[in-house]
Design goal:
The complex is a heterodimer of chains A (115) and B (110). Chain A is mostly beta strands and 115 residues long. Chain A contains no helices and 11 strands. Chain B has 110 residues and is mostly beta strands. Classes of the chains: A mainly beta (115), B mainly beta (110).
Chain lengths: 115, 110
């Protein structure tokens, strides 16, 4: 069974440029998460979906970040005007929601560098 | 907001020794505690989880949870060079959120 797939693997931008990250979750998983992981830190939740609905986006910098999951399968995270502080690895994870034992499966991430 | 702290920051152990990692969290009502392993350039991978006070064993892994002291530990028996990685403690709390610590970097020397 295929795991969580993310693309691109790397992105290098100048400040002010836009970038999109794409995630294909494990087939059948209804819940999808986007995490930001700065270097030498743990992952920090940005937003998560159940099917196509946003459940929690309270940690998403809404003025520059947006995330969609229109058909409840693939998802796109976009940064409109990147800042140096956005330099991090962006991880997508998926799970089958149901109980507290739900396991998150992560992709390998997109490593973003903003110059 | 849930807070998760891990110690030590890094650990070097000889091959075959026990690796012991610690994690403290802020909310005794947290639903479950997870340990993830992360190799360079890869996403975290779930290793083991625990819900109730006490211990749980899976293969070379043992985890101990004490909700009263808000402490959980992970012990890796017979550590192998392939166990070299960052180990992340994560706590699931209300709203189904998983909050991670910054990790412990483990290096197993052959």
């Amino acid at each position: 069974e295929a795991g969580v797939t993310q693309s691109p693997r790397y992105a290098v931008l100048q400040e002010g440029q836009a970038v999109s990250f794409w995630c294909d979750p494990i087939s059948g998983h209804d819940t999808l998460y986007w995490y930001q992981q700065p270097r030498d830190q743990g992952p920090q939740l940005l937003v998560y979906f159940r099917d196509e609905a946003v459940i929690d986006n309270s940690q998403l910098p809404s003025d520059r970040f947006s995330a969609v999951r229109p058909k409840g399968t693939n998802s796109t995270l976009k940064i409109q005007s990147a800042k140096q502080g956005d330099t991090a690895t962006y991880l997508c994870a998926s799970s089958f929601w149901g109980y507290s034992a739900e396991t998150l499966y992560f992709g390998s991430g997109t490593r973003l560098t903003v110059l | 907001q849930e807070k998760v702290q891990q110690s030590p920051e890094s650990l070097i152990v000889p091959e075959g020794a026990m690796s012991s990692l610690n994690c403290t969290f802020s909310n005794s009502a947290s639903q479950s505690i997870w340990w993830y392993q992360q190799h360079p350039g890869k996403g975290p991978e779930a290793l083991i989880s625990i819900f109730s006070n006490g211990n749980k064993k899976e293969g070379r892994l043992t985890v101990y949870l004490n909700r009263a002291s808000l402490h959980v530990s992970l012990h890796i028996r017979d550590s192998q060079p392939s166990d070299s990685a960052v180990y992340l403690c994560a706590v699931r709390s209300a709203g189904n959120k998983l909050t991670f610590g910054i990790g412990t970097r483990v290096l197993v020397r052959p």
